[in-house]
Amino acid sequence: MSHDRPHLVRTPEEVRTVLDAHRRAGRTIGFVPTMGALHEGHLSLVRAAAAADDVVVVSIFVNPLQFGEGEDLDAYPRTLDADLDLLAPEGVALVFSPAPSTFTPETRRTTVHVEGLTGGLEAATRPTHFDGVTTIVTKLFNVVGADHAYFGEKDFQQQAILRRMALDLDMRTEVVTCPIVREADGLALSSRNVYLSGEQRRDALALSQALRELADGWEGNVDSGRSTLLGRLTAAQGIQLDYAEIIDPETLEPLEGVRSGDCQAVVAAWVGTTRLIDTMRLRV
Ligand code: PAF
């Protein structure tokens, strides 16, 4: 069966006009913010929204504010036509894809900053990244006015920061975190996986394999867990490790000693010129 592509909208005013009618009719709105180059991971978020909310909205915007100097803003895959085709069978009411010149104009002077959670891990090498994310997500939340917004667990630090932001600023949108979607061999789905050669893709598996081994053997010893993880990933072929940490899932603080509660393992590494991240929950 063929499906119509979702309604594509370019301006905040058009989004409000369409969604105000749904709100007046008492329908809940589920929102999936993306940068496009959609894959099964994004579709799992769309399906979570469709299961819980009456109306599903997706945004597709490659956000220039979250790319640092020398990062892959220009090369980042932009595949709007294919994205709309992928969304066609998913019952999405609206796709919001604004133009960068009007959504993030040069005249912009406001930045949304979350304290504390934005200091380490990803931010250690990408110091402006999360201000770019929180600023754009605030704008998107303001435009869409959703009841729920769905984010993937793979960007673990991002979802923790956005949850804090929505709570601290009394936003009407509740942040919902959904599980990572993996390939059959364990590789976490990412729009950046398209950059990987066949050999790099095989090398990249070390990330999910090291996390899986850690989670399977987890007995709460953070110090030995971290050194095993570090040892495994620094020895892995074709991988240049950025960080491997075991953190508190709420505060994102690196942990030490022996813990009985939930911990989160987070890793980031370069595979060639592609930076990949992955994460796994550790439960005794
Ligand atoms: O996770 C992403 O794709 C982006 O960081 C987001 C949340 C869409 C903001 O640009």
UniProtKB/TrEMBL annotation:
Chain sites annotated for binding beta-alanine: Q66
Subcellular location: Cytoplasm
GO cellular component, one term: cytosol
Highest taxon of the lineage: Bacteria
EC class (word): ligase
Gene Ontology terms, MF aspect: ATP binding; pantoate-beta-alanine ligase activity
E.C. no: 6.3.2.1
Keywords, ordered alphabetically: ATP-binding, Cytoplasm, Ligase, Nucleotide-binding, Pantothenate biosynthesis
The reaction(s) this protein catalyses: (R)-pantoate + beta-alanine + ATP = (R)-pantothenate + AMP + diphosphate + H(+)
Pathway: Cofactor biosynthesis; (R)-pantothenate biosynthesis; (R)-pantothenate from (R)-pantoate and beta-alanine: step 1/1
GO biological process: pantothenate biosynthetic process
Residues that hold (R)-pantoate according to the record: Q66, Q158
Catalytic residues as annotated in Swiss-Prot or TrEMBL: H42 (proton donor)
Subunit structure: Homodimer.
Protein family membership: Belongs to the pantothenate synthetase family.
Function: Catalyzes the condensation of pantoate with beta-alanine in an ATP-dependent reaction via a pantoyl-adenylate intermediate.
Record-linked NCBIfam families: panC
Name under which the protein is recorded: Pantothenate synthetase
Species annotation: Euzebya pacifica
Organism taxonomic ancestry: Bacteria, Bacillati, Actinomycetota, Nitriliruptoria, Euzebyales
